[in-house]
Design goal:
Distance between the termini: 33 Å
Number of helices: 9
Largest sheet: 2 strands, antiparallel
Number of strands: 2
């Protein structure tokens, strides 16, 4: 379970820092193939008027588009780590040029293959000369790649804003210590200095542990440490509430070494006492 949490954290960091998605993932490849086929069907319906021409156009255009899509996916998959380390503008520009180059290369190969094997022009995806065929392929590719990279950029910015907002909320939660709790703790410690110096010293240590945890930048900690921190908080509250505060812990000792988000238990105990 600990490994799953660590892996999930690493994946979240990768998602928020990378502009390009992982095209090596099977799910993303499935989406690429599905969208490519749907796009080929739409183009076939728009370009033909009878069923016979529709199936011919769909077969050849889908073959062309799938080759381009899969080669682009393989290219971006292999270069993803390097591209995501670049500036966003550089990453988008390089990706755009690479995908256009792939479209041009595949189109040229298909055009040469059609000439070599004497494929009739009326069976080509576009019933036009080679030059116009290439121009149309590159124009369509340019529009699609621009929209696709624009979508990746917007999604990336949205993830970054969401991560920044979540981080700010976590930092605010960590920094938030109720003023009444602080004042009551200091008053309790002051009253114990003359009566029970050892208890007052222990309370100061517990209070310092709470401040240290609230100011820490660590995102994950062991469950056992979180429970110890919560016990320190409850020990301070016990000085004020006395026997009115009764706490019973039921803990599975096997779970103490699991990593959990920092300060995930103490705020629950604080709200329970406050309310």
């Amino acid at each position: 379970m600990t490994e799953n949490i660590v892996n999930s954290t690493n994946n979240d960091n990768e998602i928020t820092t990378g502009l390009l998605p992982n095209f090596c993932d099977v799910r993303n490849l499935f989406v690429v193939v599905l969208l490519t086929v749907v796009l080929a069907i739409v183009f076939a319906m728009a370009a033909t008027s009878n069923n016979e021409r529709f199936w011919e156009y769909l077969a050849l255009s889908s073959l062309l588009m799938l080759w381009i899509a899969l080669l682009n996916a393989a290219l971006l998959c292999s270069l993803r780590s390097w591209l995501n380390r670049q500036k966003d503008s550089h990453c988008l520009t390089i990706s755009f040029c690479l995908m256009l180059s792939t479209s041009l290369l595949v189109s040229l190969l298909i055009s040469k293959a059609g000439a070599m094997y004497s494929i009739p022009l009326n069976m080509a995806p576009l019933n036009t000369p080679d030059s116009i065929f290439l121009v149309r392929i590159m124009t369509i590719s340019t529009v699609i790649y621009f929209l696709l990279l624009r979508y990746f950029y917007i999604q990336h910015q949205w993830r970054l804003n969401l991560a920044a907002q979540s981080h700010a909320e976590i930092q605010a939660l960590r920094a938030r210590i109720r003023p009444h709790f602080l004042f009551n703790s200091m008053n309790s410690i002051a009253s114990l200095i003359a009566i029970s110096p050892e208890t007052a010293e222990k309370a100061i240590e517990d209070l310092s542990d709470l401040f240290r945890a609230s100011l820490s930048e660590q995102n994950m900690s062991l469950l056992g440490d979180e429970i110890t921190l919560t016990e320190s908080y409850l020990a301070i509250e016990t000085l004020r509430l006395g026997e009115r505060l009764q706490v019973e812990w039921q803990i599975d000792q096997k779970l103490l070494d699991i990593e959990v988000p920092s300060l995930c238990i103490q705020p629950l105990a604080e709200n329970a006492v406050y309310h």
